[in-house]
UniProtKB/TrEMBL annotation:
Segments passing through the bilayer: 21-47
Keyword Cytoplasm: no
Keywords: Immunity, Innate immunity, Membrane, Transmembrane, Transmembrane helix
Entry's family note: Belongs to the N-acetylmuramoyl-L-alanine amidase 2 family.
Its biological purpose: Peptidoglycan-recognition protein probably involved in innate immunity by binding to peptidoglycans (PGN) of bacteria and activating the prophenoloxidase (proPO) cascade immune response. Binds to 1,3-beta-D-glucan and PGN.
A Gene Ontology biological process term: peptidoglycan catabolic process
UniProt domain Peptidoglycan recognition protein family: residue ranges: 51-193
Domain of life: Eukaryota
Domain N-acetylmuramoyl-L-alanine amidase: 59-199
Protein name in the entry: Peptidoglycan-recognition protein
Native species: Photinus pyralis (Common eastern firefly)
GO molecular function annotations of the record: N-acetylmuramoyl-L-alanine amidase activity; zinc ion binding
Length: 217
């Protein structure tokens, strides 16, 4: 029996304008083709503005104990370092990210890995809590900022060029997806809380990045 079923796809976060895109079709072979074509279009649009992100599944993350969502876009980004050994390969970085999550869950009792994203010396971006989720990286600012941590100790050395570029690409991605505002403010962790993070050497470098704020909020 032929059924004239109507379906609708709504996307709100593909482009910075956050416009809604509607597609309506009769449930038919042609409608299915249109559905697939539109899905591929959205995937292509996402890929064109964002770098590759190693997902939680890909680095074998443990399930979070709690998840709290925040209203986005956010207008603040906080840069940290993990104050751990550095990593140069995906396998090394994956192991470190797993260790950080274990510590944050089992010792610090943060409910999950604290950072939104982590940047490895291999140039890869590792999904922490991800977009539009309440973090646990900068007390007092966790619900209104994206926390990005470079894996390593950067008090006296800089992250690799690949890592630095990956962070910049991630920020551009966040703006394009509407996860962070066009006029977001960038801070080092030590500007907001009592910490040495992101390390003196890295802090001196991010001061030259666009959106960096010399004055604390």
């Amino acid at each position: 029996m032929h059924r004239n079923l109507e379906f609708r796809i709504v996307s709100q976060r593909i482009f910075p304008a956050r416009a809604q895109y509607y597609f309506t079709s009769k449930w038919s072979a042609m409608g299915t083709v249109h559905f697939i074509a539109l899905s591929l279009f959205f995937v292509g649009a996402y890929a064109s503005v964002c770098p590759k992100i190693i997902t939680r599944k890909e680095w074998d993350a443990r399930d979070p104990e709690t998840i709290t969502y925040v209203v986005f876009p956010l207008d603040m980004v906080v840069i940290h370092h993990t104050a751990s050994p550095t990593c140069e390969t995906r396998s090394q970085c994956t192991e470190l990210v797993q260790n950080i999550q274990n510590f944050h869950l089992d010792n610090a009792e943060l409910g999950d890995i604290g950072y939104s994203f982590l940047i490895g010396g291999d140039g890869n971006i590792y999904e922490g809590r991800g977009w539009h989720k309440h973090g646990a990286h900068t007390f007092g600012y966790n619900g209104k900022s994206v926390g990005i941590a470079f894996i390593g100790d950067f008090r006296s050395v800089l992250p690799t060029d690949k890592a630095m570029q990956a962070a910049k690409d991630l920020l551009a991605c966040g703006v394009e997806l509407g996860e962070i505002t066009n006029d977001y403010k960038l801070y080092g962790g030590k500007q907001l809380i009592a910490t040495l993070s992101p390390g003196g050497k890295l802090y001196s470098r991010i001061r030259n990045w666009s959106h960096f704020q010399e004055k604390s909020p």
